[in-house]
Amino acid sequence: MPEKTLTPEAPGPESVVLAAPETVQNKPRSLGQDAWRELRSSPLFWISSGLLVLFIFMAAFPSVFTDVDPRHADLRNHFLGKPNWTHFFQEDWFGYNIQGQSVYARTVYGARASIIVGICVTLAVTILGGLVGMLAGYFGGWVDALLSRVTDIFFGIPLLLGGLVTLQAFTHRTVWTVVFGLTLFGWMQIARVMRGAVITQKQADFVTAARALGAGTGRILFRHILPNAIGPVIVVSTIALGGYISTEATLSYLGIGLQDPVISWGVDISDAQKNLRDAPHNLLVPATFLSLTVLAFILLGDAVRDALDPKLR
């Protein structure tokens, strides 16, 4: 009798179904997925995020926290009542200032201007510094030399001094004039960080392959280099955001930043320091909120840095 030849059977649907989970498990995770997995296990991330969500919500919807007009002044309440912790979320919770205004209401409404300045300056310096750093790092040569020298010139001017000189030229200073003054002298660090990251990424094989396939400069910069070079910039921007908020408060304290009728923590600190001995809580309350906000942004930046840098894990 002729011998039967044994042939392997075709895999049935059962084997396909069983092999699918193994394939999914072996699929490598992206950098963003690894960073999010690291952030979820970081207590600093959740603490800082909780504080920031609270302050940002307070800045966006201050009427949820108080129904008192922060500009309403009643001289009969002149320094009336020290902080009263038993009246939670009431107008006299933190007492009154020299003009008889509720310190609690002004602290709640003061979050808006301070946080808007910090966020807008951070976005502006990230865009401006990121573009300068990308162009300098990618093109090199005389473009890099020119942009680097301009960056060095601006780097020689401290942020606070540059803000003082610039804002002194404005007779009426609003949130947007402060944003302009801080952006003008705050983009250089972002530019240097982005330049170094772009120089590293433009030598990668995927950039060479994209260039060989005929990709244009814009596509290479924004589709290939930028997503891989943005990590260090995000970390620096997040940490610097708290610094911009404190710089705005410093300028307002010196009388060069925001002015009435704008309400901000820096303005209240400046007004309260004149009567620090009689009513220290008028200064300590907005200063505490300011310090917590700056600390929260710094802690968030540290958590993001640890999550994006594999060497620190």
TrEMBL record:
One Pfam family cited in the UniProt record for this chain: BPD_transp_1
Keywords: Cell membrane, Membrane, Transmembrane, Transmembrane helix, Transport
Superkingdom of the source species: Bacteria
Topological category with respect to the lipid bilayer: Multi-pass membrane protein
Subcellular location: Cell membrane
Gene Ontology biological process terms, A to Z: transmembrane transport
One cellular component term from this protein's GO annotations in UniProt: plasma membrane
Segments forming domain ABC transmembrane type-1: 111-301
SUPFAM superfamilies: MetI-like (SSF161098)
Transmembrane regions: 44-65, 115-141, 153-170, 176-194, 225-245, 283-304
Record bears the keyword Transport: yes
Family designation: Belongs to the binding-protein-dependent transport system permease family.
Official protein name in the record: Peptide ABC transporter permease
Organism (species): Streptomyces cinnamoneus (Streptoverticillium cinnamoneum)
Record lineage: Bacteria, Bacillati, Actinomycetota, Actinomycetes, Kitasatosporales
